[in-house]
Amino acid sequence: THNFTLLNNGHTIVGIYTGNNPISLRLTGGGLNGIYEFLQFHLHWGENYKSGSEHQVNGMKYAGEIHFVHRNIETLKLAVLGFFMESVSNTSTSNIIHKTTATDIYKTNNSTLVEWQKYFAVSEYLRLMNNATTINLNLASLMGSNLNNFWRYDGSLTTPPCTE
């Protein structure tokens, strides 16, 4: 697990790494050239259970999408890992729990559920711009367990500064 500052920047809640071991958060492979260091993660979500994702698959949108932003340590180019999220109702508590679509958290990966519950418990207090808090999270658990199936493409950022 690693320490993060969660900050409401007025557009979304950003998770900024505040630990002292960035090497453990490096990204390589998957067709990428070089080593990419983790910069931050952020979420995109909508007003209902199927309008928040920036991307679509076969015309289907999801409740949300989480982005893990990395930067190449030599070229400074960015690589963003995006994961779809869907909203499901937990009948035992009637709360909304978010999960990645790549994992059935109720059967195979409880650590994913635990990490998301920690995130959403503290993000409740970040409704106002510039509100911040610290949290200890396991990024790998937030991603889920199936990292072998993915799409890769060149593009630009959809959040400021919207660089190509």
Automatic annotation (TrEMBL):
<keyword id="KW-0456">Lyase</keyword>
<dbReference type="InterPro" id="IPR036398">
    <property type="entry name" value="CA_dom_sf"/>
</dbReference>
<dbReference type="InterPro" id="IPR018338">
    <property type="entry name" value="Carbonic_anhydrase_a-class_CS"/>
</dbReference>
<keyword id="KW-0862">Zinc</keyword>
<comment type="function">
    <text>Reversible hydration of carbon dioxide.</text>
</comment>
<protein>
    <recommendedName>
        <fullName>Carbonic anhydrase</fullName>
        <ecNumber>4.2.1.1</ecNumber>
    </recommendedName>
</protein>
<dbReference type="GO" id="GO:0004089">
    <property type="term" value="F:carbonate dehydratase activity"/>
</dbReference>
<dbReference type="GO" id="GO:0008270">
    <property type="term" value="F:zinc ion binding"/>
</dbReference>
<dbReference type="Pfam" id="PF00194">
    <property type="entry name" value="Carb_anhydrase"/>
</dbReference>
<dbReference type="InterPro" id="IPR023561">
    <property type="entry name" value="Carbonic_anhydrase_a-class"/>
</dbReference>
<dbReference type="InterPro" id="IPR001148">
    <property type="entry name" value="CA_dom"/>
</dbReference>
<feature type="domain" description="Alpha-carbonic anhydrase">
    <location>
        <begin position="1"/>
        <end position="164"/>
    </location>
</feature>
<keyword id="KW-0479">Metal-binding</keyword>
<comment type="similarity">
    <text>Belongs to the alpha-carbonic anhydrase family.</text>
</comment>
<dbReference type="GO" id="GO:0005886">
    <property type="term" value="C:plasma membrane"/>
</dbReference>
